[in-house]
Amino acid sequence: MNNYKIKKPISYYNQAYNSIKEMIFNGIFKPGDRIYESKLAEQFQVSRSPIREAIRSLEKDGLLCIDDKSRTTVYKPTIKDIEDIYECRRALESMAARLTTIRASGDELKKIENVLLEVKENIEHFDDNVTKAIILLNSQFHNLILHFSQNDRLQKQSNDLKLLTYFYRSIDVYENKRNRDIFEHHLKIFHFIKQRDAEKAARVMDEHIASDLKHLKNILKMNMD
Q: Where does the sequence pass through the membrane (predicted)?
C-alpha cells in the first residue's frame, strides 16, 4: 500500500486520480469493493476534496460506480457490459486497422513493429514481473493503430472505452500461452497492415477482438460459479 502514497509538490487531484486508478488495475481494489473518501484521504494524507474530485472523474471513466445512496464501489463487469464494449471495439478498431493500412507511413509502421519486438522479448524472458509490461505493450499496439488511422472522431470514440478496455486486460489471465496467442494475433494483423491489405487487416482485427471477448466471458463466468 505504501507505493500509493501522495507526494505533495504535485497536484493532489492528479495524484489521487492516478493512485486510485492504479490500485484498481493492480487489484488492490477489486471489482465490487467499497471506496471510502475518508479512508483514502487519511491514507494519502490530503483533504477529502481532491479525493472526491478524483472519484467523480473515475466514475465518468467507468471505473467507479456511485449508487443512489452515494455509495462508491469499484466497477464490477457483467457479461452484457463486456459484450457491449467489445462490440464497439470490433467496429471501431477494425475500421482503424483498415485506415492505418492505407494511411500509415513507413516510419509509423516501424513504430508498431518495434512494439511487437518488445512483446516478443518479454515473452521469451517471461516471469510474473513482465506481465504488466506486456499488458501495456499490447495496449500500445492497439493505440498506435488507432492513432495512425488519422481519424480524430474514431480516436475520440475509442478513447471513451480506453480505461475500461485496459481494466478488462488487467483482469485477463496472462499465463505465457495466453501471451503467445495474443502476440500471434497481433503479428497477423500487422502482417496484413504491412502488406497494405486493408480488408484482411480489418477482418483479422475483428477476429482478434472477438477472440478476446470470448476469453474474457469465460473468465467472468468462471468467477461467477
A: none
Question: 105 — phi, psi (to 5°)?
Answer: -80, 170
Please write the tens of the pLDDT for every residue from 177-201: 889 999 999 999 999 999 999 999 9
CA 109, 188, 183, 86 dihedral sign is positive
In whole angstroms, give the CA distance from residue 39 to residue 112: 42
Reported as a single tens digit per residue, the pLDDT across 86-144 is 999 999 999 999 999 999 999 999 999 999 999 999 999 888 778 889 999 999 999 99
Q: Which residues of 2-23 are buried (b: 16+ CB within 10 A; e: fewer)?
A: eebebeeeeebbebbbebbbeb
- Look at residues 74, 7, 18 and name the one whose alpha carbon lies nearest to residue 51: 18
Place of cell 503467445: 180
Q: Name the strands in the sheet holding 64-66, side by side, starting at the edge strand that comes first in the sequence.
A: 34-35, 72-74, 64-66
All domains of the chain, ordered by start, with CATH?
Answer: 2-74 (1.10.10.10), 79-224 (1.20.120.530)
User: Crossing angle of helices 176-194/106-124, nearest 10°?
Assistant: 160
| DSSP for residue 196 | T
Q: CA 146, 152, 158 angle in degrees (round to 5)?
A: 50
Judging by DSSP bridges, how do beta strands 72-74 and 34-35 pair with one another? antiparallel
